[in-house]
Each structure stands twice: as C-alpha cells, then as structure tokens.
Design brief:
By secondary structure, the chain is of the alpha/beta class. Strand 8 and strand 9 form a beta hairpin. The protein is built from 46 helices and 25 strands. The protein has a five-stranded antiparallel beta sheet with strand order 5-6-10-8-9. The termini are far apart.
C-alpha cells in the first residue's frame, strides 16, 4: 500500500483530479474506463490523472521519476495499437488543455493545446479561409496531441500531407520537468542548443553523437522504407533527423513518438487555404479487388485530392443501418470494391472535366463497371461518412470472429498495391481467415482487418502469425510496418525485423536519451510486451447464457452488444461537429460519460464478475448515471451499440439486488399520479403552481427546486374524444393517447384530433394503456413488459397498413417501434413486429399522405410564417425529423429552419432530478437554448417532445409548439370548419 500513500500525497498537491483508490467506486470506474482504447488491448492503469495546467503535469512527471512509474499521455483515446493502454498513470489532457492560443492569418499558422479537436479547430479557422490539413477518419473527435503522437495522415494526405509535415513548433515537458521548444534550427541555433548546460542541451549532444556516426547513418538510410513511400511511421523518425537537406527539427521526432519522449503542452501548426469550393467524388465500382488496386494507379496519374477504398464488407453493413442505409444512394449493383476518388475545382465545368477524363481512362483500360459522380458538399459528405465509418461498421459482423487491428497500418508504394494485396490474400487464405480491405489506396496504405476470434487459443495464434508473416511482405516491398496508426504495443516487437536490429538499437538509444527512467509511456515502440498479451478477451464468457429481461437475441446477447464497441470514440464528438451522441459527454467532457465507457464497463463486469448477479456493481451504476437514454448511440454509433437498452436492463437487475429507490418509483408511476391529479385538476394545479407547495413536493421527491412541475388538463383526451360526434370519413386512423397527451398536453391532442378530422380522416382512440415509457426510462423492465404485452394484445388486430396507429409524443409512440419487440414474450413477437411497422408519428403519417396526394396545399393558409424546429432525440434516432421539417414547410409561405441541436437535456425525468439538473441545463445550453434566445418573437419554436418544450420553457421562458398545433392553426378557414360538421 506504499504506492497508495504516495498517490494520496500527490493527489493533495494537484489542482486537477487523480483517481487511484481501488475500493472507491468512482475511482475504480475511471480506472476501468481508461483501461482500453480503440485497440484490442486492456490493462488497468495504476491511476488516472486529469491535470489542470502545466504545474500539475510537472508534479506528475516528478512523481513518476521518483516512484518508478510511467505516465501515459492521452487525448481522445482512439489509438489502434494500444498506445494509451498500460499499467502506469494515464494522463488525460483532453479536458483542460483544449484552447486555441494564437492565430496568425497572414503567416498561416495557429498555436493550440493538445486537447483541441481537429474538426473543431477547422470550424474555428473556416471564417479566416484557412484549415489544418491532416484529416483522420476520426477527425471529429481526434485531438491534436494524439495526431502528433501518431503522426496522423488521413483521407487527403496525398495532397494535404501528414501531421509531421504540418508541425512547425512544439512546447514539450522533458523528464526533468523543464519545458523546451522544438523548432527548426539553423546551424547557429543548433550550436547554441548543443552548448547549453541543461537537460535539453544534454539531449541534443547525445542525439548529435548518435546520429553523426557514419555507420548509424548508413543503417538508417538503408533500413527505413523507400522514400517514394509517404506513409512511413515505423519506430522513431530518425530518417528525418539525418536528412541534411532540411533544418534540424525535433518536431520530426516528436511526431509519431506516441508520447514516449515528453509531454507536449502546445503545438504551432501550419495552415493551408481552404480547398477549391467545388467538390466531386467519382465512385468507381469494381467486381475485383486487384482490379481496384490497378484502377487506383490510374487514378493517381490524374492528380486527385484523395483515392480511398471501401470494400463489400463495409458496404454490406450499411444495408439496414439506421444511419448509413440513407448513404447508399450512389451504390450500383453489388461491388466487391469501391474506389472513391475526389476532385476539387473552382468551377463546375473544370470539376466535371477532371472526372470525365479519369472515367474515360478507366473505361479504356477495362477497369470498373460503374462510375457515378457525386457532387456538392452535402452529398459528398454522405459518401465520405460511409468510408469514415468503416472501422465501426464492420464491428456489426455476427459471432466471435471479429475484425482486428493488426496489419491495418502496413503501407507500400501505391504501384506495389496490386501485388501486395494479392500476396496478402494468399496469406490470409492459408491462415483460413477473411478480412475487410479499406482506406488509403492513394497513399499505399490499406486498412486490412482480418476476422479473428481472439477468445480462442487458435485465434490468438493466428493473430501473431498473420502479423509476423505480413512483416515478410513489408520487407519484400520495402514498405512500412506502420503508416499512420503507430507501433504502440502491437507492432513494436517486429520493428527490429523490418528496420534491422542495428536501427532498432538506435531507437532504444533514442528513447534512453530522452527518457532513461521510463517516465513517458514506457514499453511502447521499443521494449514492448508480446503483442498477444493483455488482450481484451483474456477471460471468456458465453454471453448468450446471461439472463436478461429484454430480448437481446438479435444482438447475440447483451455481452455481445457491449463487445461491439470498437472504442473508435464516435461518442466523443462535440456540439460543434453536431449530432446527438453523446449529450452527457458533450456537457461534462468526462470519458466515463461516453457511450464507449458505458459499453466497456458492462463488458468488463459481465465478463469478469464473480457475482451471481453480474450487473450488481456500483461502477456500472456510476457510468450509467448520466446516460440520458436518448437513443443517439443506436443510430449514430456505427456499431449500433444501444446503451439506452442496456441501461434499462442494468437498472432492472440492480433493483433486483438493491430494491427500488423512492424517486424512481414515483417517476415510473407518473401516469398513475397524473390520473389521480386529473380527478381534482384545480387542486392539483394549485399545488404544483404555488411556489411554497411545489417546492415541498420537489423536496420530498428529490426534484430540482428550479424546475417547474407539469400541470394536468381539466379533462383527458380520451374523455374529450368520446364526446365528439362520429365522423364518417374514407380512411380511418387510430390515435394513441399517450400518458403525457392524455393528462398534461391534452390541448395538443385535441388539435391533433381536429387536424386529422379536418383533413378528412376518421379518428379513433382505441382501447389501450399507457406506453410504458416512464417505466422503461427508470429501468422497470418487468412492469414495462406487462404494459407492452397488454398493448400488443389490444392493438394487434386493429392496426394495419391501412389503419395505422399514430402518435403525438415521440418518446411514447416510438416505444412501439423500438422496445416492444424486445419486451414481449416469443408468442407475441411477430404481432409486436407487425405493430411496429404500422406505428407512425403523426408528422410522419401526414407527410406520407401529402406525398401520396391525399392532402393539398390549398387546404392551408398562404400567410407567411417562420418556424425554427427542434427535433426530439427519438425522432433523430429514427430519422424522422425530416418528415416534420417538410410537413411544417408544406403551407405555401411557411419557412422552416432546423435548429442544429442535439439532445435538449431534459430527457424525461432526468432534468427534474436535483443532482442532474446542472448537467441537464449544460446540455440544453450547448445549442438549443442559445438558439431559442436568439430567435425573434415572431418566429415560432416547434418541438414535438413534451420534455423538449418543458426544457425550452424553463431555460428561456419561451413557449414552444408541437408541430400539429402549428399545422392546425395553418388550416385554411374552410378546412377548419370541417371539424365542426
């Protein structure tokens, strides 16, 4: 326990946070969350540090040197070779080192801290007509520090270059805590460095001695990949340091050093002008992979901006995907391989001319069978999104044979790719392994990911064999073992074979010159552990036998769903990039609040727990606490890791072990309380609207005092509807009176009823019970199951394609389309599936009717109206916001703008709960609430979700409207009178 005592002392001296106590659930949660990255490795760190400022970093460095532990610098944690996995102290600089410090537009450079996200940086630079070039597929969460550590390249590296080429200067903390600047040095400046009697001077002198020896220079020049290969990231970049034609700059060494020689605190980056505005992608379809590689050589002769490969595996996993199915518009037939070739130009004519020239060249050579040309930023982004999502999409492969990062970073010259790929195919056939091939064909680096079952001894043997045999091919083609993902602990042990043992010794000496005590990320690049140790799956459990209340058959069990998380970190993007996933991370910027951390925590405990109830762990509760169950991960995560579903399952098991909290019971039984309140509506509303009385209620339940409580209507929607005269119409629709519309938003339900009637539909509210949403939101899965089965039995013989079930509140009606199928018993599953297909949001139904010609624009006013629309999270998850946008735009002079917001932050009861109120408001303040405040009073705010409208009211004092309210009010006078006839 001596190290714990030392960590106690260190913690008391830091301004930031330190997590290290094994018996403390919050500390253990943080350690487990940082035990993995996007690689196949897993190792529990000694501690996790979140430093606030350089002083904290210096204290950590001094501590590491004194105690003989290593520091593992980390930003987004998307490394694929285990660079940020280890048993030392993980130092996460993403939280507090995330500022743009200085911009020089004239000289085209920017100075930033290592936690600045690449895409967020470019959003900041765009108004100045500038950008930072290197672009990884993870660019919407990848941070500058990690990009420098790995020397990231990305899609456009053949034109925009890699990170090393664009790193001008860096401030670095050395192992004695001194801060130095790496920059280009002329002879006089270099001599000054060599003469300095400092730790920095010592490093320069020792490096100079090492690199000045003729035999070492010769070993470097002959051992490193051939110079025509731009993707060259094996070991330390000693080949750049011995290049006498360029100024000596230790930034060349820092880039690709994986945090092993110091901790960077600032970087000065080279910027480039924004590319030409016209963009087009020639998407060449191939029936054969080798032909595709030959086509790539032809494409490069036409000087494109990028040439990227996507294979059949990735394309197949876009089919039926809630997000990427919509991106398949450009695919023709069933290609084995797709080459996406980008051209840019200042004018459309030049753009089409470039594409036409390449198309003719390929056709003349008999290469490719289809050549769709996609133009415009919106459409080309959809295509690129498929390519960028490749890493996550192929994690949808069923079974335990999964794609692994192994030989995905090996690179050869593009002209060698056809032969290299043919050799790889032969190798994998001999190993009886399939693989996915994708990514940077233009740069000669394909991400080839073999499908291997790492849970078996045979699989782990193949894991080693395939990499070892591939190194022979790297040598054959004088290629690079690592192109942009780095060596880490995955490829480090094979560097000596590829570069030569003499060069490997030079790499070891280089590490020793900078870091003789192993302070910085020890055992990465050099002296690495065996590449087949400390894997995620050292312990194997048959997850299919884990008892669950929800049905996870489609996902092959809850454990398999958790395992689908690749760690690629799509859930770490910010509100600047957009999207909804993950709202709690966007607000807190804590790794434990990511989708990734939640999936990993479940995976680790479901795999390793010794308890009979494997869900019964405080660490799982800790990571699930701020999950808003927004369902964004269900659609935005390429691997479709549905944390909302897993959270509900976890909570039910947790209640089984610990009982049900009072507040959770109150919230789950919301419908019952509102039903009782409706009997005495005036009294109920008096209580919740009188501050003293309302605060007493909030205090007892545990609600935030700043929240307003919902009122009940003087009648229920069902009661009102029963009093309406029978309307004979050509088409009947069933209207689901959900628990919120029935009691609280009854006026909206009445307008929905009247709107449908006015448009010519017979509206029937069938016999049903509540949706069960309040129970599911608090993890009362067993109760939700009873409700789901009752509703399915009541509605299954009524609801059809001709007589659909329409819903007003997204969170309630989408339960039919999502959870019901997983809730009901097997004998009702087909009925639930059929019901889900014919259950629609009212906006969705009306828009379909408009498109079918059943509703005319003449039925609505011609007055002008501006509307800003906020989509509910569930609408976004099921891609339904577009229906609402088009519906509200249907009246001739109505203009609709969709607010680019994610989650509103209310998330049902989440925003009411006292301890969650602050996070709830932070989420709302990311985009939605500022956008509402900036909207003039004449513009209407539309929001379908009752929680969203409540958050807008509490956060801005502004009323927002359900889309049916706006559309009903837009009815022309003659159409509206039909409701009275």
């Amino acid at each position: 326990m001596q190290i714990i005592d030392e960590l106690n002392r260190l913690s008391s001296r830091l301004r930031g946070s330190l997590f290290y106590l094994p018996e403390n659930p919050k500390h253990q949660t943080m350690r487990l969350a940082y035990a993995t990255d996007a690689s196949v490795y897993q190792e529990l760190p000694l501690a996790v540090a979140i430093p606030q400022g350089k002083d904290d970093l210096k204290k950590l460095i001094a501590f590491a040197g004194e105690q003989g532990v290593t520091l593992i610098p980390r930003t987004a944690g998307t490394s694929l070779a285990g660079q940020v996995v280890g048993s030392g102290i993980v130092v996460d600089v993403s939280r507090c080192f995330n500022q743009v410090l200085e911009l020089n537009v004239e000289e085209r450079w920017v100075r930033v801290q290592p936690g600045v996200i690449r895409d967020d940086l470019n959003s900041y630079l765009r108004p100045y007509g500038l950008m930072f070039g290197p672009e990884t597929s993870t660019a919407n969460r990848a941070m500058v520090g990690g990009m420098i550590g790995n020397n990231s390249s990305g899609l456009h590296s053949i034109v925009w270059g890699d990170t090393r080429q664009n790193l001008l200067e860096a401030k670095v903390l050395l192992d004695d805590t001194s801060e130095v600047t790496f920059t280009a040095l002329d002879e006089a400046s270099l001599f000054e460095k060599l003469s300095a009697q400092t730790r920095e001077g010592e490093i320069y002198r020792k490096l100079n001695t090492l690199l000045s020896k003729a035999e070492n220079k010769q070993a470097i020049l002959s051992g490193y990949p051939k110079k025509t290969l731009t993707r060259r990231n094996t070991g330390y970049a000693l080949d750049f340091l011995v290049d006498s034609e360029k100024p000596f700059n230790l930034c060349n060494l820092l880039a690709g050093s994986e945090g092993t020689i110091g901790i960077m605190t600032e970087a000065k980056l080279n910027l480039m002008p924004l590319p030409p505005k016209e963009i087009g992608l020639l998407c060449v379809h191939f029936a054969d992979m080798i032909a595709c590689m030959e086509g790539n050589i032809v494409a490069l002769a036409h000087r494109p901006e990028a040439s990227e490969l996507v294979d059949k595996y990735i394309l197949d996993f876009t089919v039926g995907h809630p997000t990427y199915q919509h991106n398949r518009f450009f695919i023709e037939g069933d290609p084995q391989a797709l080459l996406i070739i980008e051209f840019r130009a200042e004018g459309e004519a030049e753009l089409h001319q470039k594409a036409a020239a390449l198309r003719e060249d390929l056709m003349a050579r008999g290469l490719g069978y289809a050549y769709p040309f996609v133009v415009g930023m919106v459409q080309t982004n959809l295509v690129w999104d498929v390519r960028k999502a490749g890493l996550g999409l192929i994690r949808n492969l069923p079974g335990d044979e999964q794609p692994v990062n192994l030989i995905e970073d090996c690179a050869v010259s593009p002209e060698d790719l056809p032969a290299y790929v043919k050799d790889i195919q032969t190798l994998l056939q001999e190993e009886e392994v399939h693989a996915s091939y994708y990514a940077h064909a233009g740069a000669g680096e394909l991400h080839i990911e073999p499908f291997i079952n790492l849970k078996t001894t045979a699989g782990r043997r193949k894991f080693r064999n395939i990499l070892e045999r591939t190194t022979d091919l790297v040598l054959k083609y004088n290629g690079s073992l690592s192109g942009e993902h780095g060596d880490g602990r995955l490829r480090g042990e094979f560097i000596g074979k590829v570069l030569g043992e003499q060069v490997y010794q030079l790499l070891q000496e280089t590490k020793n010159i900078f870091d003789p005590r192993g302070v910085f990320n020890a055992n990465k690049i050099v002296n690495t552990p065996a590449m087949d140790t400390s894997l995620r799956y050292d312990t194997v459990v048959d997850g299919k036998h884990l008892k669950t209340y929800l049905d996870f058959t489609q996902e092959e069990g809850i454990l398999r769903m958790a395992e689908k998380c690749s760690g690629s970190g799509d859930c770490r993007k910010t509100e600047i990039t957009g999207g909804t996933m993950c709202p709690s991370f966007m607000a807190t910027r804590d790794e434990k609040d990511t989708t990734r951390a939640r999936a990993n925590m479940l995976r680790q405990f479901l795999t390793n727990s010794t308890k009979e109830n494997r869900f019964d762990h405080e660490e799982i509760k800790e990571v699930m606490d701020l999950c808003l169950s927004c369902k964004a991960c269900k659609s935005e995560c390429p691997s479709r890791v549905d944390v909302a579903k897993m959270k509900a399952e976890f909570l039910q098991h947790y209640y089984d072990a610990h009982g049900v909290p009072f507040r959770s019971s109150v919230i789950a039984n919301f419908t019952k309380s509102q039903r009782l309140g409706s009997y005495v509506a005036p009294l109920y509303n008096f209580i919740v609207e009188t501050p003293v009385l309302a605060n007493m209620v909030k205090s007892v339940v545990g609600f935030a005092p700043m929240r307003s409580l919902p009122t009940v209507h003087f009648t229920t929607l069902s009661q009102w509807a029963r009093k309406q005269p029978l309307q004979k119409r050509q088409r009947k629709v069933y209207l689901f009176s959900d628990e919120f519309t029935e009691y609280n938003d009854t006026a909206i339900g009445i307008k929905a009823y009247d709107l449908l009637t006015a448009l010519g539909y017979q509206v029937v509210i069938p016999k049903h019970v509540e949706s069960g949403r309040t129970y599911l939101s608090k993890g009362f899965v067993k109760e939700a199951k009873k409700i789901a089965e009752k509703n399915v039995r009541l509605l299954k013989d009524l609801v059809t394609a001709e007589t659909p079930l329409l819903g007003i509140e997204p969170s309630a009606i989408i339960t039919f389309r999502d959870e019901y199928v997983a809730l009901v018993d097997a004998d009702l599953r087909d009925a639930a599936q059929s019901l889900s297909k014919h259950t629609l949001m009212i906006d969705e139904f009306l828009m379909r009717e408009i498109e079918a010609g059943s509703i005319q624009q003449t039925q609505f006013t011609q007055e002008e109206k501006k509307i800003k629309l906020h989509g509910h999270c569930y609408q976004k998850a099921f891609h339904l916001v577009g229906y609402t946008e088009r519906l509200l735009s249907f009246p001739k002079n109505y203009q609709v703008e969709v607010i680019p917001s994610g989650c509103c932050g209310m998330a049902g009861s989440f925003g009411y709960e006292e301890e969650h109120y602050e996070v709830s408001m932070k989420v709302g303040e990311l985009v939605l609430l500022p956008a509402v405040r900036a909207t003039d009073e004449k513009t209407l705010i539309a929001a379908a979700g009752t929680s969203c409208r409540h958050q807008i009211k509490d956060g801005t004092g502004r009323r927002s409207y359900h889309p049916v309210e706006i559309l009903y009010d837009a009815l022309a006078g003659s159409a509206r009178t039909k409701t009275k006839n």
